[in-house]
Amino acid sequence: MTSITSTYDPAARVARITLADPERGNAIHPAMVAELGEAVRTADRAGARVIVLASTGRFFSVGGDLRGMAAADDMAAHLDDLADDLHRVVSDLQRSRAVVVAAVQGVAAGAGFPLAAAADVVLAGRSASFTLGYTKVGLSPDGGTSLLVHTLGLHRTLRLALLGDRLDAEEAYAAGLVARVVDDADLETQTDAVVALLAAGAPDAQATAKRVVRDAAEPAPEARLRAEARGITAQAGGPEGAEGVAAFLAKRAPVFGDGD
Fold first, then answer.
1. Dihedral sign for Cα atoms in the order 116, 183, 4, 107
2. 160-171 pLDDT, tens per residue?
3. Is the domain defined by 4-185+203-217 classed in CATH 3.90.226.10?
């Protein structure tokens, strides 16, 4: 069963990529990431000027598929591969000449948060919220979380990573993550309006603006992403990751050790 749908309008040169696994909260798992990566690459090969990243259902994404992680023969190897593939998607979105627009409704949790933030323009319905939550299950962040420092600042990002706080749509707007907050019922039409504005603009100027601004923020994001992958892989191979994931699935409080 496909977890992604994608369409392309060659006249407008607009690609629309939708996370389409609402029964699982658009959880991020290897098959979804593979489909997402192929959709992004296909859009780039087609010469898309705008890529829209959206979702179906109540949530943008609940984050990583913890059941799939727990069922893996080697959770560390599973997460290493998954993080590398997801980070390639994040890098492709950020390196693309296309302007990437994310339309977020409901929660963007775990890796769903930095995936939405990989867009150049983030639009949010009033129901949207953003949270990390990795440390609650004994894992360290991935998906491009470290790149949030450039948008949210050091200590706000640390607060989100360490305390598991949640940003609602208005807080995300005030923090600079979200470009516009609209009623949920208007999210699709407002996204279409932003896409039309971009599609009517100067493509080379937009692509150059995206590149120079992103390079100023982080000229080598892939190095940061690889460091994140190493971190979550190490956690997944240790006792905290095993306990945190098991506790979450058992719906009990985790019991962590004293650390090093």
1. positive
2. 999 999 999 999
3. yes
